[in-house]
Design a protein that fits this description.
Strand content: 25-35%
CATH superfamily of the largest domain: NIF3 (NGG1p interacting factor 3)-like
Largest sheet: 6 strands, mixed
CATH class of the largest domain: Alpha Beta
Helix content: 25-40%
Oligomer: single chain
InterPro entries: DUF34/NIF3, DUF34/NIF3_sf
Number of helices: 10
Distance between the termini: 44 Å
Radius of gyration: 20 Å
Shape: globular
Family: Belongs to the GTP cyclohydrolase I type 2/NIF3 family.
Order of helices and strands: EHEEEHEHEHHEEHEEHEHEHHEEE
GO molecular function: metal ion binding
Number of domains: 2
CATH architecture of the largest domain: 3-Layer(aba) Sandwich
Subunit structure: Homohexamer.
Organism: Jiangella ureilytica
CATH topology of the largest domain: Udp-n-acetylmuramoylalanyl-d-glutamate--2,6- Diaminopimelate Ligase, Chain: A, domain 1
Length: 289
């Protein structure tokens, strides 16, 4: 008969799915706060460990929040409630809510963040864009796959916009709107450092976030690939549902049952978009929240 899970059991299951050794050396993954012997009945999945997510967890009665982004990436010497991150830790501990992070280990895992993004866009026959060391062909950063049928870049950009959560900034694309695309590379989060690998993979278009001016301009001058720039938060959000389902199965196999919820709280930092205006236009700014 299934029963509640201990936090230690949930952590062990999550680390089987997203092994800590896959994380970058600079990363901070794993259990941030919480008693390993505490019982976990409800788990909230979110991209960012921010105050709005803590509010959602406390109102719902979550025992654990699993986030993609770490709360602490740099060393700290205290967590006083006089700082935003300190206040968050105090609220979680006082409310009996643990916090666990799977970041670049979830990026490299299979299935992980990039598999979820590729699936959301309908890609088939995916493979890692940058394979991980160790010989496992499924592990690595980014994914490359193909669309079921080729389509113009403009139609593909529409596909991306429809597949991801709405944000104030939406998405933007670089390239000929009529150019036909079939091979697609994706990388959840900031991915312009992988542009060389994207070109080597022969991708027609690359979907990622936080694209900078100069690398994007150079990609255009080099003849491609076309680029689709999405919100960092939105590009990683599809992973949450995948992670929740996988962890539920993993815990059930071990004799534990949990209730999961994917946060729909938008934690993208951009809240306002002012589109370019025709001279003389008096259109106001458009807010998405």
């Amino acid at each position: 008969m299934e029963g509640p899970a201990r936090l230690a059991d949930v952590v062990a299951a999550a680390e089987r799915l997203y092994p800590p050794e896959l994380a970058e050396s600079w990363d901070a993954v794993g259990l941030v706060c919480g008693d390993p012997d505490a019982q976990v009945g409800r788990i909230l999945f979110a991209v960012d460990p921010v105050a709005a997510v803590a509010d959602e967890a406390l109102v719902w009665g979550a025992d654990l929040i699993i986030t993609h982004h770490p709360l602490f990436l740099r060393a700290v010497h205290g967590v006083p409630a006089t700082t935003p991150k300190g206040r968050l830790v105090h609220r979680l501990i006082t409310g009996g809510v643990a916090l666990f992070t799977a970041h670049t280990n979830a990026d490299r895992a299979a299935p992980g963040v990039n598999d979820a993004l590729a699936a959301a866009l309908g890609l088939e026959d995916t493979r890692p864009l940058v394979p991980a060391d160790g010989g496992d062909p499924a592990l690595g950063l980014g994914r490359v796959g193909r669309l079921p049928r080729p389509e113009p870049l403009a139609a593909f950009a529409h596909r991306v916009a429809g597949a991801l959560p709405v944000t104030a900034a939406g998405i933007r694309a670089m390239g000929d709107p009529h150019a036909v695309v079939e091979t697609v590379a994706v990388c959840g989060g900031a991915g312009d450092s992988l542009l060389g690998a994207v070109r080597a993979a022969g991708a027609d278009v690359y979907v990622t976030a936080d694209l900078r001016h100069h690398p994007s301009s150079e990609a255009g001058e080099a003849g491609g690939p076309a680029l689709v720039d999405v919100s960092h938060w939105a590009g990683e959000w599809p992973w949450l549902g995948s992670a929740a389902a996988l962890l539920t199965v993993e815990l059930s196999a071990a004799g534990s049952t949990v209730e999961t919820r994917v946060s729909t709280t938008p934690t993208d930092p951009w809240t306002l978009h002012q589109p370019a205006q025709v001279p003389g236009s008096d259109e106001g700014a458009h807010a998405e929240r």
